[in-house]
Amino acid sequence: MFEEVNNSNSLVVLPTALGKTMIAVFVVAEKVEKSDGRVLFLAPSKPLCEQHHDTLSSRLGAEVRVVTGETHGSDERPEAWGTGGSRSRPHRPFGTM
Description:
Number of strands: 2
CATH topology: Rossmann fold
Distance between the termini: 27 Å
CATH architecture: 3-Layer(aba) Sandwich
CATH superfamily: P-loop containing nucleotide triphosphate hydrolases
Radius of gyration: 14 Å
Number of domains: 1
Number of helices: 4
Order of helices and strands: HHHEHE
Strand order of the largest sheet: 1-2
Shape: globular
């Protein structure tokens, strides 16, 4: 399934616990390797963001950030997303809207 979704816009619909997150981890890893190291991963709730944060951090060994309305005010988001100020290396944003 990874090959099917990796190079196109895709929507993966599977029942709970059948691997949607792991497919996303493989896609994120591939995109990070082939790009500037930034990926925006959206989730519909803060608990799901935190769950994905833990999974991505442990599987990719990359800097992963959770950005929500509760964790960052609107004036703090550019820096949290890695778009404000100077930095020594790319950040891998992770957030929800």
